[in-house]
Amino acid sequence: MVLDKREIKTERLIETTFINILSEKDLAKVTVKEICEEALISKSTFYDHYVDKYALLDTIIQEYSRQFQTEIHERFKSVAEHNTLKVISSITQSMASHNKNLSTILKASGVDRSLESNFKKILFQESFEYFTNHEINRNFSSEFLAKMYAEIALASVSFTLTNYENTDLIKQQADFMNLLQQAMLKKI
């Protein structure tokens, strides 16, 4: 189903309004009525697009997860092309531009499928696939390397979101992650 411009604008408005409200209060305290009042839309308009606030949150989580999946996939593809720093920089810039939204969604509680668990799953799957398909490090299993990589990379994401305004720290973080990735990929 193709959405027209009005539907896209309405969904963006609802999502932006929801994230703004969610940045100020817990998910359990956010109401559809409040979202509608802030967005200046009727409840029927909200329900034309989403079943409830949890469906709205899930939609936002899925959008960020798809974007993250693409960026991480490109990062592992770039390892062979030796342009990992460029991809890390791209991911960091993308995260910095969405800092408030990502921070808010990552903090959202009361949700079975959180953005953090999706990010961790994506990081594990992409790194496991890479480590399994490339003979890189015989001292450690692909599963161990993938789990460690996912945990460290997720910490890196959190660091980026916390320190996105400090370009020196972000550059150091990108350099550190690149060194870490190179060490994991070495045939030891």
Task: Describe the 3D structure.
The structure is a single chain. The chain has 188 residues and is an all-alpha fold. 77% of the residues lie in helices and 0% in strands. The chain is built from nine helices and no strands. The chain has helices at residues 5-22, 32-39, 43-49, 53-81, 84-97, 99-107, 115-133, 142-163, 167-185.
List the SSEs and their pairings:
Blueprint: H1 5-22, H2 32-39, H3 43-49, H4 53-81, H5 84-97, H6 99-107, H7 115-133, H8 142-163, H9 167-185
InterPro entries: Homeodomain-like_sf, HTH-type_Tx_Regulator, HTH_TetR
GO molecular function: DNA binding
Pfam family, one: TetR_N
Spans of 5+ residues with little confidence (pLDDT < 50)?
none
Strand content: under 5%
Largest sheet: none
* Overall pLDDT: 84
Number of strands: 0
Radius of gyration: 19 Å
Instruction: Please report the number of helical segments.
Output: 9
Classification by helices and strands: mainly alpha
Distance from first to last alpha carbon: 51 Å
The helical percent reads: over 70%
Bulk shape: elongated
- H-E order: HHHHHHHHH
Quick recap:
This protein is an all-alpha fold and 188 residues long. It has helices at residues 5-22, 32-39, 43-49, 53-81, 84-97, 99-107, 115-133, 142-163, 167-185. GO terms for molecular function: DNA binding.
